[in-house]
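Worked example 3 (structure in, sequence out).
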């Protein structure tokens, strides 16, 4: 475990500004999940709650979990004045240790969770076990190539992964891989200039 990526790290980061993220849902979540029949969703590393609120607007029953109580308090405030066809339960969890209930969710989404590999890989496997039969696992991350492109990205050994590697870690007889690619989209470099960045996108459906 790398201590700097624990609860105190994230509380400090969220306390440093009024809003860390844009308030908009992540684009690959919208691209992959739009039109999917709503059910039970687990949003892991929910932050300030934009993805969870988008899912609840689509009718999903969302369990939203994060390291940071500061982020969760902000998410609750943002959602308190809104009415959703679905619902959101905000939960504080240590993602380095927490095991979600097995086979319980129709969608498990983890967007841009960049932990050291020794923490991230076991977490992703625990998340996979929480997907119900017929449910979807959606994992999205920054591409390591974004650093060379000039994007502002976390620095550190082992923080990046490829969608293909995540797909290879799932048992072939239990999963159907729907998407495993580095998907381009527009972004900005550190000076505000337009560049092309890539999201590593893995979406898989559990068969058994």
């Amino acid at each position: 475990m790398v201590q700097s990526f624990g609860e105190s790290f994230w509380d400090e980061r969220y306390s440093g500004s009024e809003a860390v993220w844009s308030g908009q849902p992540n684009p690959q979540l919208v691209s992959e999940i739009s039109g999917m029949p709503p059910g039970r969703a687990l949003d892991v590393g929910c932050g300030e709650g934009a993805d969870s609120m988008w899912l609840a607007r689509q009718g999903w029953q969302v369990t939203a979990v994060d390291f940071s109580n500061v982020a969760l308090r902000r998410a609750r405030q943002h959602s308190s004045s809104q009415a959703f066809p679905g619902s959101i339960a905000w939960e504080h969890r240590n993602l380095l240790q927490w095991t979600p209930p097995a086979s319980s969710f129709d969608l498990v989404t983890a967007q841009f969770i960049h932990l050291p590999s020794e923490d991230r890989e076991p977490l992703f496997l625990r998340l996979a076990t929480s997907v119900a039969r017929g449910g979807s696992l959606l994992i999205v991350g920054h591409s390591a190539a974004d650093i060379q492109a000039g994007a502002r990205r976390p620095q550190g050994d082992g923080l990046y992964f490829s969608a293909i590697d995540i797909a290879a870690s799932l048992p072939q007889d239990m999963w159907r891989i729907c998407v495993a690619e580095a998907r381009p989209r527009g972004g900005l470099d550190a000076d505000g200039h337009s560049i092309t960045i890539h999201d590593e996108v893995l979406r898989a459906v559990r068969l058994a």
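Notes: The chain has a mean pLDDT of 91. The beta strands are 40-44, 61-66, 87-92, 105-111, 131-142, 175-188, 194-206.
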